[in-house]
């Protein structure tokens, strides 16, 4: 595990108010952690005692920031833990990240133009303002050797520093280290702009765990200051490079063994296909490892379980690392979910930060990670509708509010939109769902009700019939279908619930009104609350889209362009593979 130690550096003197605020926040969130603050003398002493071969290079750098860049890598390599810039403001405790071998964060995703200007081959730029790892991880000698290789670069601009010891160099080495990347968990930018608005775009965070406030004082060009070029002292770097290579080789095998293989528990039979969120996730990731019906015959392996936690307890062994990929729809988990997760699983993955918050608040103690679920990109087809066709797809459990949508459409048929049609597709009907409730709906000429597991072509054709897709769910754990309809350029109306927030923030879909919360009814059980959605508010949202259909259709086409670059299935598979390989 990564030791619960936070390393910080400061040249000396009185701390500025921003730094004091950030440190107070970090200590409040990590009361049981050890904090170490190094001034220049203490930093040099660490190198003298533990890595003296690096001192000629360290002392030879022409700028203090280059020495600070080198030291932060050295101290995490030697002792493990997390390094934080003094201006990193913590949002979430780092405890759950301690189960990884090494954690880096994406500073920002560069445009093609920015990549060209910086000479980068990869758009994902890696931050060096915060990172963590187990002691002696071989990635750090690789990075230190790269610093030595670029040591003789004269410093005439800020970019020279970024590319010789800073995030530019870290970015290059991360993307070049194919084998070591398997052991690194990379936190994606959470889709949040730079908190100081000085970098433009979505940037400058450590996942959802912390934000960078840019309180550092090393930069000079933006202050329009002149600075003479700095030339590194002439030193022999060969000895340092040789020692670092020894460190690298000594640790490679040890950490490679820790990565291990991935097995996938057979949560669903091969012929089931996908008909809801969990079956979709399972079928999307089952090819990442060998599928096992039971895991008691293996040990010291990583087991991925896509499903409801308590259903698979008998197939799991405590001799393995059991990783659960699941979700929940209300704001509080049932007690038996919490007990199952805490007792039988070592890690838990959920598809949205708001859901992770529900799991934490409910009492889940195992480390939680957020990973988007992707969505199916059906084939756009020529529009088939001749009337105003509303679409709904999914298993019609109570929280999805299909009955309220039906009543809203009936009201609109009588009063405002006589030609309205409701197209409902249900892949499967769960045994515990009261099917009789929908008999009247199926018999209504206004409704086009279809059932069965459609293939890709059939599903694409179903969507082509729609004028508008409406998803009035009170609570969702995945919410695939609004993403699918947006991708096809269909005007989409959704409920304002947490998993829909990014869709609503895009400005390309429409929200029905939410009237507070109501008790979350899962059959006869009640667990927490979810959104209260009324039929009149569904009707109002549909009316607005109908009245402004040309404008809504134009916005939907722009939305299709936007969402085509979001939540890619390949990212899910790659991120999941890297997550598993980087766990201890």
UniProtKB/TrEMBL annotation:
Entry-linked SUPFAM superfamilies: Nucleotide-diphospho-sugar transferases, UDP-Glycosyltransferase/glycogen phosphorylase
One GO process term, biological-process aspect: mannosyl-inositol phosphorylceramide biosynthetic process
Superkingdom assignment: Bacteria
GO cellular component assignments: membrane
Assigned keywords, A-Z: Transferase
Listed Gene3D superfamilies: 3.90.550.20, Glycogen Phosphorylase B (3.40.50.2000)
One Pfam family matching this protein: Gly_transf_sug
GO molecular function, one term: mannosyltransferase activity
Stored InterPro entries: Glycosyltransferase_domain (IPR051706), GlycoTrfase_DXD_sugar-bd_CS (IPR007577), Nucleotide-diphossugar_trans (IPR029044)
Record-given protein name: Glycosyltransferase
């Amino acid at each position: 595990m990564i030791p619960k130690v936070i390393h910080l550096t400061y040249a000396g003197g009185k701390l500025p108010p921003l730094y004091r605020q950030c440190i107070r926040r970090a200590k409040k969130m990590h009361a049981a952690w050890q904090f170490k603050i190094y001034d220049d003398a203490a930093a040099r002493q660490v190198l003298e005692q533990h890595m003296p071969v690096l001192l000629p290079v360290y002392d030879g750098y022409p700028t203090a920031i280059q020495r600070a860049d080198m030291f932060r890598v050295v101290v995490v390599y030697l002792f493990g833990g997390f390094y934080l810039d003094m201006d990193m403001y913590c949002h979430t405790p780092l405890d759950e990240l301690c189960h990884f071998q090494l954690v880096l964060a994406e500073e920002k995703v560069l445009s093609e133009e920015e990549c060209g200007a910086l000479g980068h081959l990869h758009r994902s730029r890696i931050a060096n303002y915060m990172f963590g790892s187990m002691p002696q991880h071989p990635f750090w000698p690789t990075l230190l050797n790269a610093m030595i290789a670029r040591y003789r670069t004269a410093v005439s601009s800020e970019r020279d520093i970024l590319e010789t010891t800073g995030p530019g160099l870290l970015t290059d080495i991360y993307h070049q280290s194919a084998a070591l990347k398997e052991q690194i968990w990379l936190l994606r930018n959470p889709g949040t702009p730079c908190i100081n608005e000085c970098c433009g775009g979505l940037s400058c965070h450590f996942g959802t765990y912390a934000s960078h406030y840019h309180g550092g004082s090393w930069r000079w060009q933006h202050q329009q200051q002149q600075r003479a070029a700095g030339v590194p002292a002439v030193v022999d770097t060969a000895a340092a490079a040789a020692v670092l290579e020894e460190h690298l080789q000594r640790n490679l095998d040890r950490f490679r063994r820790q990565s291990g293989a991935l097995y996938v528990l057979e949560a669903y039979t091969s012929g089931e296909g996908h008909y809801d969120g969990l079956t979709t996730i399972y079928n999307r990731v089952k090819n990442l490892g060998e599928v096992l019906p039971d895991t008691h015959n293996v040990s010291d392996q990583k087991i991925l379980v896509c499903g409801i936690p308590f259903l698979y307890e008998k197939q799991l062994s405590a001799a393995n690392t059991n990783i659960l990929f699941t979700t929940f729809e209300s704001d509080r988990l049932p007690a038996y979910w919490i007990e199952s997760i805490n007792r039988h699983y070592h890690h838990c993955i959920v598809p949205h930060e708001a859901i992770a918050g529900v799991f934490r608040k409910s009492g889940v103690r195992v480390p939680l990670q957020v990973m988007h679920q992707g969505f199916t990109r059906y084939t756009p087809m020529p529009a088939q509708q001749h009337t105003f066709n509303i679409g709904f797809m999914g298993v019609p459990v109570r929280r999805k509010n299909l009955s309220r949508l039906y009543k809203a459409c009936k009201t609109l048929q009588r009063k405002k939109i006589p030609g309205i049609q409701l197209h409902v597709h249900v892949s499967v009907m769960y045994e515990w769902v009261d099917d009789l409730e929908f008999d009247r709906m199926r018999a209504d000429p206004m409704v086009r009700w279809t059932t069965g597991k459609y293939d890709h072509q059939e599903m694409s054709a179903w969507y082509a019939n729609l004028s508008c897709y409406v998803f009035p769910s009170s609570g969702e754990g995945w919410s695939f279908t609004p993403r699918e309809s947006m991708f096809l350029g269909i005007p989409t109306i959704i409920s304002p619930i947490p998993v829909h927030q990014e869709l609503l923030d895009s400005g390309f879909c429409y929200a029905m009104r939410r009237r507070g919360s109501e008790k979350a009814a899962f059959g006869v059980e009640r667990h927490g609350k979810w959104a209260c959605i009324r039929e009149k508010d569904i009707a109002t949202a549909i009316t607005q889209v109908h009245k402004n259909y040309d404008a809504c259709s134009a916005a939907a086409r722009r939305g299709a362009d936007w969402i085509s670059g979001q939540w890619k299935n390949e990212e899910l598979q790659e991120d999941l593979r890297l997550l598993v390989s980087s766990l201890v």
